[in-house]
Amino acid sequence: MPDVTEPFDLILFGAAGDLALRKLMPSLYNLHTDGRLNETGKIWALTRPGNNLEAYLETLKQSIQLNEPELDPVEWKGFADRIHHLGLDLDKPAGYNKLKKKLSDRTCHRIYYCAVHSRLYPSIGEQLAECSLITPDSAIVLEKPIGSDLQTAHEINQRIAEYFSEEQIYRIDHYLGKETVQNLLALRFANSIFEHQWNQRYIDHIQITISETVGVEGRASFYEGTGALRDMLQNHLLQLLCMTAMEPPASMDAQAVRDEKVKVLKALKPIKGADILDKVVRGQYEEGISNGNHVPRYKGEPGVSNDSNTETFVALKAEIDNWRWTGVPFYLRTGKRLAKRTCEIVVQFKEVPHSIFELLHKKTMANKLVFRLQPDEGIRLQLCEKRVGNHMQVRPMTLSLNQNENDSKRVPDAYERLLADAINFNPTLFLRQDELMTAWRWADPILQYWESSDQRPDAYNAGTWGPAAATLLLAKDGRLWEENSA
Length: 486
Fold this sequence. Notes:
The protein is of the alpha/beta class.
């Protein structure tokens, strides 16, 4: 039998937004069809005034059918029966009072999910508190990015802390819910063969890439005030770095895991002043060919100004100042309109000190472990084997560490795991306040430097792997980006 969540009311702010329709509601639907939602659980879809339940359900059905064309009518009806709709202005008490009346006869876990801009979080918290909607069995889920810099993140967290205790605040990063990230921990901490070599003695460097082929997709109003560093690097990439580099926690207890992640963030060497020019690359895409189609430059996207300085690409060299990782660079990059859509963690091991074999090329002996998070999740280990024939030549071969490919069991989406955890008040895979603030404290000097300098993003053609400076970032260290498997 599948694990079933506790009885719950999930109140979704921004239920008609892109995130809710594309990710959150489909994940809740999958939890429902898998029998993992408590039968008494309700979903409250909060949208702007003027919408109604019938129109919302039709829009939602079309969104779910993008991934489930043959929607089971019985399952859909059961899921639709869970959904209740309410139109309200987020900063006015009238709608919250209506919500209070609807929830007054319900005594269960109450989860407020904020799928809206983080500047609205304090107002939502204040209105919930004034209408006495926050109970001891309440939690609030905050989507990234929380704030636009260290100061705004601090202000938002301080305001939310006026209404919710730290134990009630769930800061979500959906990459932490991916199956391969969970497998990364299992591979490291359940296998001595890997954990024994997970350090500067055996690892040459680590690359973490999150690349997208899409542009801003009509979200220029959001992206213009955000950029790649705020949108992806400060949260997703740093979280993947933490999961890769953390020390073994004492247990899988939420606080133990998050303690170790904070230690990694505190050990990151600051990148400030002149080091930013040497270790950080930012870019902005020009027109080009993406997925076989001609696409405009970023400044040609609707809603983007012609003098925009917003970066759509960022790459940097990060270093962790501790015993395990000293001397091992972590190369991070993310961008829009790149050559392929992928998310990978590549652990590049050092070459053998002396080869006794005839090599086909000089990199043959370097092993690597690749964790792919998207588009298809999996783990691959590159080893060396003898070529068939009379000569003693070795060549690289790839060992798949994926589960049986014939296993028809569906891999759950990251949001499915995290939504179930939030409903059950399990904070292990969510960010603690000190974790978020330490990440902002490290990233903030880079943002401040960009804003105070006249440096502009390097141009790169859509459909490529970013600016030439990103290639040079590794080349000057005698390395290259891993792009063959991407």
